Give the backbone structure.
Amino acid sequence: MTESRGASVRYENVQKSYDGETLVVKNLNLDIPPGEFLTMLGPSGSGKTTCLMMLAGFEPATHGEIFLNDRPINNVPPHKRGIGMVFQNYALFPHMSVAENLAFPLQVRGMGKAEQEEKVTRALEMVELGSFGSRRPAQLSGGQQQRVAVARALVFEPELVLMDEPLGALDKQLREQMQYEIKHIHENIGVSIVYVTHDQTEALTMSDRVAVFNDGIIQQLSEPDQLYENPQNSFVAQFIGENNKLSGTVVAVDGGTCDVKLDDGTMLKAEAVNIGHVGSRTTISLRPERVEFDTNERMDNLIPGEIREMIYLGDHIRVRMKVAGNDEFIVKVRNRGEKRDLRAGQTVEIGWATGDCKALDPVA
Amino acid sequence: MNMQPQSDPQVLTTRDGTPLKVSLAKALRREKLRSLALIAPLLIFILVTFAAPIADMLFRSVENGIVENTLPKTVNALSDWDVTSSQLPGEPVYKALYEDLKVATEEKTHTRLGSRLNYEASGMSSLFRKTGRRIKRMDEAGPFAEQFIDIDKDWGDLATWRLLKRYAPKYTPGYFLNAADAQLTADGIAMKPANERIYLLLFARTLFLSLTITLCCLLLGYPIAFLLASLPLRSANLLMILVLLPFWTSLLVRTSAWKVLLQQEGVINDFLVWIGVIGDASRLVMINNKTGTIIAMTHILLPFMILPLFSVMKTISPTYVRAAKSLGATDWTAFWRVYFPQTVPGIGAGAILVFILAIGYYITPELVGGTDGIFISNRIAYHISSSLNWGLAAALGVILLGAVLLLFYVYDKIVGIDNVKLG
């Protein structure tokens, strides 16, 4: 596969409604630079697939404009957009062999037979299915079909490839393997990829940037680590990774930090990320692995909690506790092999640093 | 002595030494018997009311016991006579004929034999009637040959005796030859005179019209099925009811409605004259001919094309067409290269269904076909109920059945029968 420069994509004030009453996509603005691997992540019904379909040309935008390489494409039919696409169930043509499937986009472009064959062979080799050209899709395993679908979307050397939950039908192990393969293909040929998924692991593993969708709005657009470390609101904190929620009221703001009084009266110091004025409600977000039983002086927050349940998970132990009135409070303890005297029913002191708990918008 | 059952090491056995396959068959036998018992009532019903009558009817196409049963002695006496000889059979044959006909006249079976032989050569029916009327007045002492020739000079004609000799055997290809516009002559099998040929033309027309009707159904049904498969469920259900509506209306009513619409003083002609497309004097003839048969039967058989097409199209995911478009195919290419090939099993099922229904159709061609729009089945019905030549009707039926099976076989070879999907 020759080196292809990726395409840039720009959504400008894009809105989409199916029924004229509700907006599925609310004023989307998004810039995708050439060669980026961008993932649209969100629960079902969040509008991410609709955004992808508008880019592919299968759904018209109700309002706004989409640009491909700075060219408006609202009125360009799908087959003239030159965008490769991998579908959820692969959509390999069942009546054609693998090689015919791959040759299809080349044929409709009027490419010569010899050139077609060469490109098909190279594409099959890229996905390590060199000897499978004469098989029918139904004779392949799910993972092989997946690779053929990827190869078919790339064989005509598009600058942009869209992937609509392409790994959803695979089992866990294969899914992880395919994640790396797709990531490597992206790194090798430099094409832009817009990837839609509801699986956060997938998003974090593969993407340059992730756009978290909810309710037709991009909740946060940032690199995977920022998404986990610095969620901008409660939805993102909740959606990406595991998260403990504590509700309270802001009592004082001091630069980047704030004092929060929890509903049971406990006082906490938290990083002020997304809060209103003093006196407004807030939700504290705290990752389970940042909470420690071995408290030390660097921790500004030390509070007692009652152990409710211990779950042994091999590499770590999940401890469910009742903390500040919340009895779904989870603490992850790394399994270091040392005997620890923790039992259900015990009340122990736990602690964490201010930077590890974020004061975000209140959750109803 | 080793009393243990000798077991081949290759053959798996159960612990008591019986081969595994035998034990398995034994274990499954009860299951099989039970399922057989469940379908037994239907099986017996079908055998008695469907398979047996059809077999009996088909058997009539070659069965020809009537000559030997009615004229046993004559047939026996004739066995010595050479069919190619230029001499009439001898006196003993005429004597045997007298004895046979005397019995037959008393039992009144001679007229039936007359009608049977009349299928092969006209004049035989009246010959036997006439002879039957006068046989009592014949002199029992003979000579019989002269007396018979005196009654009717046909008894002195070599052709009559050759006919009797040819149709004396218990089984005859005569009905089949008749059905193929041929006959058994002294010189072997020959085609009938051109002005008496009818069945080959009818078979050809039946085939041609059935194919035309199948094609019309496909052309009209494909877009409808496509629409049905791509509409949202609610509107698709409504449309489906419209497609099924004809099934709830009597076939006769629908066919008669076409008469009202298509006849020369009918609705369509009146309308065309009114808007001035055709003149009053040149009204279109659309009924009582091939056109009428094609229009009415296409209408009646259309649902049988739409339903299998629909059920196949329903299973084709719209993402295939989307994928094709995303790969650069125009709407037409996406349809023709990606969607259409996947509907071929539905086309196969619909076409076979419509064709087989059409080729044996009876009521509609009878009502709107006139003379040049009728099918072979109308002729079969005529021989069953009017001319009472059941042997010929059976032969025509066997040929029709054979033709359908042959086409089915050819279809299987070309398209593959497992490529047919009804849903």
Notes: The two ends of chain A are 51 Å apart (CA to CA). Helices of chain A lie at 48-56, 98-107, 113-126, 142-154, 172-189, 200-206, 224-229, 234-239.
